[in-house]
Specification:
The protein has 496 residues and is α/β, with parallel strands linked by helices. It contains nine helices and 26 strands. Helix content is 24%, strand content 29%. The protein has a ten-stranded mixed beta sheet, with helices on one face. Strands 2-5-8-9-10-11-12-13 form an eight-stranded parallel beta barrel, surrounded by four helices. Helix 3 packs across helix 4, helix 7 packs parallel to helix 8 and helix 8 packs parallel to helix 9. The structure holds alpha-L-arabinofuranose. The site of alpha-L-arabinofuranose has 10 residues, from loops.
Length: 496
């Protein structure tokens, strides 16, 4: 069957917040140490201890926002351990992740410098689970207060006279689990208390983010919205895609067709989760003042054989690229509420865009999707309608093709297309309506692979890489397109 797609270029339906393309970094495995931080004396080229290659690669994909220091680590983190001369900083055991000694060499100053280098917004997660109101309040004062105060003075003594700008601040992480195993009623009260002392100093206006539900815990969302929505700017949601269960998650490579299929089917569940959570939000906040931030999402597989199980290091294949592509389409559709998302995690942990090994660095298939899709950042979502074939396996069905279209500030239209089938190509007819200009110049880029688990390695870093896409034909206002099996494609349309 020919998949029929109708795109209404004259019907924008919302703005795709660039922060949907955000990232997450935690003191976990080799994300912070090795991934970003190598120290000033490292032979790996760095600026003030932060590796240059990783910064350059992330700037290229226009990273808009970076969340730190966790994750579960956030509710064990005491920020004062990570300031001052590095040789004097306290060592601690990272009990949650691998029991390694954390030397606190990467702390507040290093993180905010990293964000400056990346030209992205910092998103800090504060400690509710094992921290105090005073500790959280002083952290905000330390980072953002411009005037006479104990914390501003301490910051100055540590070499940073001027305060930083910090817009995004999370009040706890997964407080239903690793962040304190709380009941929603209890956390809602704690949230109200803690956030009171997350102050806005001068013109630094903090966007306060409450810890939201785990996956489909609609009761958590209900209680938080009912009891605390007036005190928050946004609430988070965490959902990971596992082909199996928590005991046997499934392999990142060397998997079967059934694993391919179930992974994509489970990734598509994000749509239902957001729909149901936002329905609850709509009841309490019909003006949609409170944003939904999916600040942990992505694939979670068994760790690479031979690696520390507490480090969550996994390979990344064309399957991950498709999970990323279709998840972005879901976020776009919900852009009236979803104002940010942070894939877990940026380097060397879970669905990373970058993997490192010593001085070597590779870009994963997921990186290439972020690169190809960066054109959607801050663009207007265009109304589109897709009638697609089913992709069937063993009696189960999902839509074969996923589509999203946007128009950027220059008027350029981008259409991103995911073909989820592991074996069949897809013929599409795209009916473009409401275009201004009679002549349309079309170009395209695709990411495809020969096998379901095709990935990049340190020996073959470009095994899965984008290439020019030419399998399209323009007939009047229709575009006929032939997508390769298991591929992500972006078309660019310039109407003159
Ligand atoms: O990203 C890994 C972990 O997953 C985070 O620390 C935690 O918030 C979540 O459970």
């Amino acid at each position: 069957m020919v998949n029929q797609i109708t795109i209404h270029a004259d019907q924008p339906t919302g703005t795709i917040n660039r922060n949907i393309y955000g990232h997450f970094s935690e003191h976990l495995g080799r994300c912070i140490y090795e991934g970003f931080w190598v120290g000033e004396d490292s032979p790996i080229p760095n600026t003030a201890g932060i590796r240059n290659d990783v910064v350059k690669a992330l700037k290229h994909i226009k990273i808009p926002v970076l969340r730190w220091p966790g994750g579960c680590f956030a509710d064990e983190y005491h920020w004062k351990d990570g300031i001052g001369p590095r040789e004097n900083r306290k060592q601690m055991v990272n009990t949650h992740w691998g029991g390694l000694v954390e030397n606190n060499h990467f702390g507040t100053h290093e993180f905010l410098l990293l964000c400056e280098m990346l030209e992205c917004e910092p998103y800090i997660s504060g400690n509710v689970g094992s921290g105090t109101v005073q500790e959280m309040s002083e952290w905000v004062e330390y980072m953002t207060f411009d005037g006479v105060s104990p914390m501003a003075e301490l910051r100055s003594e540590n070499g940073q006279d001027k305060p930083w700008k910090v817009k995004y601040f999370g009040v706890g992480n997964e407080n239903w689990g690793c962040g304190g195993n709380m009941r929603p009623e209890y956390y809602a009260d704690l949230y109200r208390q803690f956030q009171t002392y997350v102050r806005n100093y001068g013109d630094n206006k903090i966007h306060k983010i409450a810890c939201g539900p785990n996956v489909d815990d609609y009761q958590w969302m209900e209680v938080l919205m009912a009891n605390a929505h007036r005190h928050m700017d946004a609430i988070s949601l965490h959902y990971y895609t596992l082909p199996g269960d928590w005991a046997n998650k499934g392999a990142a490579t060397g998997f079967e067709e059934s694993d391919w299929f179930i992974t994509l089917k489970k990734a598509l569940w994000m749509d239902e989760l957001i729909t149901k959570h936002t329905t609850i939000m709509d009841r309490h906040d019909p003006e949609k003042r409170v944003g939904l931030i999916v600040d942990e999402w992505g694939t979670w597989f068994d760790v690479e054989p031979g690696t520390n199980p507490g480090f969550l290091y996994q390979q990344n294949t064309i399957r991950d690229a498709l999970v990323a592509g279709l998840t972005f389409h879901i976020f776009h559709e919900h852009c009236d509420r979803v104002e940010m998302a942070n894939i877990a995690q940026v380097v060397n942990v879970l669905q990373s865009v970058i993997l490192t090994e010593g001085e070597k660095m590779i870009l994963t298939p997921t990186y290439h999707v972020f690169d190809m899709y960066k054109v959607h950042q801050d663009a207007e979502l265009l109304y589109s309608h897709t009638v697609t074939a089913d992709y069937e396996l063993d009696g189960n069905k999902i839509p074969q093709v996923s589509v999203s279209a946007s128009r950027d500030k220059q008027g350029v239209i981008h259409i991103s297309l995911c073909n989820l089938s592991h074996q069949d190509g897809a013929d599409l007819n795209i009916d473009l309506r409401g275009l201004t200009g009679s002549n349309v110049k079309i170009s395209g880029t695709e990411l495809k692979a020969a096998t379901m688990d095709a990935h990049n390695t340190f020996d073959q870093p470009d095994n899965v890489a984008p290439s020019e896409f030419t399998a399209f034909k323009q007939i009047g206002t229709d575009i006929q397109v032939k997508l390769a099996p298991m591929s992500v494609t972006v078309l660019e349309l310039i109407a003159e």
